[in-house]
Design brief:
Largest sheet of chain A: 5 strands, parallel
Number of domains of chain A: 3
Low-confidence stretches of chain A: none
CATH class of the largest domain in chain A: Alpha Beta
Largest sheet of chain B: none
Helix content of chain A: 40-55%
Distance between the termini of chain A: 61 Å
CATH architecture of the largest domain in chain A: 3-Layer(aba) Sandwich
Number of strands of chain A: 9
Distance between the termini of chain B: 52 Å
Bound molecules: iron/sulfur cluster
Radius of gyration of chain A: 21 Å
Number of domains of chain B: 1
Oligomer: heterodimer
């Protein structure tokens, strides 16, 4: 019904971050909806179908079009649904996305690495003296809280600092938590984003694992994993299982007086709302509360923030399908951040962090890109800042 | 006045209506197949109803984006709805009068004391619709904002509505010229189109019949054209807004006073 409700007003076109880089009708929601309607009614000819498929995958499923659509069409959900339906009909995703999805299906992580390596960051961090105490595995100790690091912070050496800092902050706040380590599954949300028909089963398997393990509260530090566990699993997970994004939890801990940022971090920063956290889950306030709680830190908003935050291009498999477009999108975001005069752009998602770093490279910008944990660590326990972590990890790796 | 082809007209109306019903039924079958969830009445809470009313009738989001676009859309929306309401009411009263169940309302509104009200209503909303269509065309062809759809059917629909409104005014003026009445002053737009002003003094009956045929048949044809045109959104948008308003009741990003400020392409 939503396909036919489009008023062809073009509002989506004016806001679409991909259209801004590649202004073709097939890119914006209006174009995609028109083609979808034709597929259902009369079918598309070869050329038009090719154009439509390009538009369908040249989309970060950021949800900006949904927010500005006067009819409030659930565009990004339609794209995911359309991708899945097409795969079922034998029209598969772009090659790079297929490789990525295969890795998730076969290795249970998007890095195609052995699962045994998943929890190594915690061991290394403990050996390097970056943690107050060792992080325990869930199978050995069922703590009231489970920290879910996600594939990127677990496997990507450039992002493991996020997992270490998250664990350290939880320890500083006195939170009793453990991790699944090698048993932590990929959240599988990327299957949903890219239209893999196996998503429903994969989600059910993960939900069963959480339920079997008796987990009551999950803290997630990646916006993509959060969208997966919190929104995509809605209806599968019982209401008694609380899924929180790290920023929600840290904000709560700060407000309750369990975590106190004391040291001055005199910096001017701007904040990037990840699509999956902001537009898709309405978490706008909590990360900002954290930044405001850090002494000396001043936050300057970008022109587009909150529900209008400009997507960095990392979502929906766009980076895999069209890396050059993602680069342009993140460059555009970095230019907006530079306009504020801030020294750094802060985000609470490691995937966005990677995406924004592509932008600073592309624009040769001097702007720093930080995960929000880095800002908080500098105020709470600077001995675990990114520089220390990277140095310690390199030393341990090189023996 | 020349006789008008009423039988042919009613046959045409029934055919168009049946076609509309069939098209909507076929679509409905497709829509319910694709619907993830039904609309639970339990979700129909006050904030949801409020969101729906604001969005459907006042189009608040459009207002926050552009007052001009809002004005154009409101004119077309209210003009179209009000004229459709008027035609439907007249039609129902006519049918009821045939079986003496209209409580005298048909005569009251057609030539009694309610006649001025009918004339004012028709002319006022006709003018509103005309202004909305003219504004939409001016925006499309003169201002040409980047988001304009290059879909010729949208232009066709706007011109179609504009011509229907114009023919409505002309029809009224021809009727006034053929059988003047003291109450004609209430038709404040129809008066502007009096045929004498355009040098038409002879053959008024033929003009009237031709204009009637154009106006009546094009009005009925809208029923058949509706499922294939942008007009379909006037039926579906309120439904989608209702479904999503319920879904998004908990969301706090429904409305943003600063929307315009953030819009990248102005
Ligand atoms: S904003 Fe919504 S109604 Fe307008 S063209 Fe885009 S999808 Fe259609
Ligand atoms: S989801 Fe984002 S990228 Fe995709 S069409 Fe909508 S605005 Fe553009």
């Amino acid at each position: 019904m939503e396909m036919e409700a489009c008023a062809r007003c073009g509002e989506c076109l004016a806001w679409c971050p991909v259209y801004a880089q590649d202004p073709r009708e097939s890119i914006c929601s209006r174009g995609k909806l028109g083609s979808l309607k034709r597929i259902v009614t009369s079918g598309l000819n070869g050329e038009d179908m090719k154009e439509f498929l390009e538009g369908l995958y040249e989309c970060s499923a950021c949800g900006q079009c949904h927010i500005v659509c006067p009819v409030r069409i659930n565009t990004h959900e339609l794209w995911e649904q359309a991708r899945e339906s097409l795969v079922k009909a034998g029209i598969s995703q772009p090659e790079e996305q297929i490789k990525h999805l295969t890795a998730i299906r076969e290795c249970n992580n998007s890095f195609a690495k052995p699962q045994t390596e998943r929890g190594l960051w915690a061991e290394t961090a403990w050996r390097a003296g970056l943690l107050k105490e060792p992080v325990r595995l869930w199978k050995e100790y069922q703590a009231p809280v489970l920290y879910f690091a996600g594939c990127t912070a677990s496997f990507d050496p450039a992002m493991q600092a996020v997992a270490v800092q998250s664990a350290r902050l939880l320890q500083e706040a006195g939170v009793d938590f453990s991790i699944l380590g090698p048993d932590e599954p990929c959240c599988a949300s990327k299957l949903r984003r890219m239209g893999d028909p196996g998503f429903a089963d994969a989600a059910q398997q993960r939900a069963d694992l959480f339920l079997r393990s008796g987990i009551g509260r999950i803290i997630v530090s990646c916006a993509g994993c959060f969208k997966g566990l919190h929104s995509d699993y809605a209806g599968i997970l019982p209401a008694s299982l609380e899924v929180l994004h790290l920023t929600e939890y840290l904000d709560r801990l700060i407000r309750e007086g369990n975590l106190t940022p004391t040291r001055n971090v005199s910096m001017k920063v701007t904040y990037h709302d990840p699509c999956h956290l902001g537009r898709h889950n309405q978490i706008y306030r909590e990360p900002r509360n954290i930044l405001h709680a850090i002494p000396g830190l001043s936050l300057i908003e970008m022109r587009r923030h909150g529900p209008f935050s400009l997507c960095c291009g990392m979502g929906g498999g766009l980076k895999l399908a069209k890396p050059e477009i993602q680069k342009k999108m993140s460059a555009a975001r970095i230019r907006q951040a530079e306009e504020t005069g801030a020294e750094a752009i802060v985000t609470p998602c490691q995937t966005c962090q990677m995406g924004l770093m592509t932008g600073t490279e592309a624009t040769s910008s001097g702007l720093k890109v930080y995960h929000i944990t880095e800002m908080l660590i500098r105020s709470v326990c600077p001995e675990a800042d990114r520089a220390h972590i990277e140095k310690a990890f390199t030393e341990i790796e090189t023996g | 006045m020349h006789p008008r082809p009423w039988i042919l007209f009613w046959f045409f109306v029934i055919c168009c209506h049946l076609y509309l019903d069939y098209s909507l039924y076929r679509r409905w079958k497709g829509w319910i197949r694709g619907m993830k969830t039904g609309f639970a009445m339990s979700r129909l809470k006050m904030p949801v109803v409020r969101i729906w009313l604001y969005e459907v009738f006042l189009q608040r989001q459009l207002f926050s984006l552009s007052v001009m676009r809002w004005l154009i859309h409101q004119c077309i929306f209210w003009g179209f709805i009000s004229l459709t309401f008027l035609s439907l009411t007249k039609f129902i009263l006519l049918l009821l009068s045939r079986i003496s169940l209209d409580a005298g309302l048909h005569d009251f509104f057609s030539w009694g004391a309610g006649y001025p009200f009918t004339k004012l209503w028709g002319d006022f909303f006709g003018l509103i619709l005309f202004a909305g269509c003219a504004g939409a065309l001016a925006r499309r062809f003169v201002l040409r904002p980047v988001e304009t759809a290059h879909d010729q059917t949208d232009t066709f629909l706007t011109v179609y509505l504009l011509l229907m409104t114009l023919s409505g005014f002309m029809l009224e003026s021809l009727r006034m010229a053929l059988s003047p009445s003291d109450l004609d002053n209430y038709a404040f737009i129809g008066g502007i189109f009096m045929p004498a002003r355009f040098g038409i003094v002879a053959g008024l009956g033929t003009w009237h019949a031709v204009t009637w045929i154009f106006h009546a048949f094009s009005g009925a044809a809208i029923l058949a054209y509706l499922p294939h045109s942008k007009l379909l959104h006037s039926l579906l948008a309120p439904l989608v807004i209702a479904l999503n308003a319920a879904e998004e009741e908990g969301r706090k990003d429904m409305y943003w006073p600063k929307t315009k400020q953030y819009r990248p392409i102005r």
